[in-house]
Amino acid sequence: MIVAVALLGYAALLLTAGSKALARARWPDRAPRLAVAAWLALAGSAVASVILGGAVLVVPTVRVSADLSVLLTDCVMALRATYAHPGGAAMAGAGAVLGLAVIARVTWCTAATLVRAGLPGAGTARCSPLAGQHDRRYGAVLLDHDEAAAWCLPGRWTAGRAHHRGRRGA
Asked: Exposed, middle or buried by CB within 10 Å (0-12, 13-18, 19+), for 82?
């Protein structure tokens, strides 16, 4: 129980103080790749600690021994002891729901992000070679504009060729 509280407290600390500290930091302007890696490490560590905290609530700790039969017997006895009192099943259920909810939310957000990334920029990425000039030095399409901006669009594009549908040979 102490381990579960520690893991969930660690996740709460990361998601409150850690995210605020990274948001206020000035160094990400100088090292954007490192900043992205730090954000991903923070989020991954928080998600992993919540999942592990939920797993700790579900699976009681068992003394590991060299003999497999003793290990299995200890596991069965620990499960009986855990679920013998009223709070045992409720705590295990809460841990399972917590872990599954986090996994479901991360899966949902990942799928939604992938779908959104594939849809809106696809047309823009196909049209960008028509609007600008492909620069082989940068491996990008450069557009003339009064203000400096850098855009990253999902999808594939082919420099110098427009994608047409319909008539053949036209």
From this structure: middle
**Does residue 112 lie within any of the structural domains?**
no
The domain in which residue 10 lies consists of 2-102
The pLDDT assigned to 85 comes to 64
Cβ proximity of 128 and 141 under 8 Å = yes
Number of structural domains found in the chain: 1
Q: In the predicted model, is pLDDT for residue 95 greater than 50?
A: yes
The residue assigned the tokens 């090292």 is 31
Confidence of residue 164 (pLDDT cuts 50, 70, 90): very low
Structural domain contains residue 54: yes
> 128: exposed, middle or buried (C-beta count within 10 Å: 0-12, 13-18, 19+)?
buried
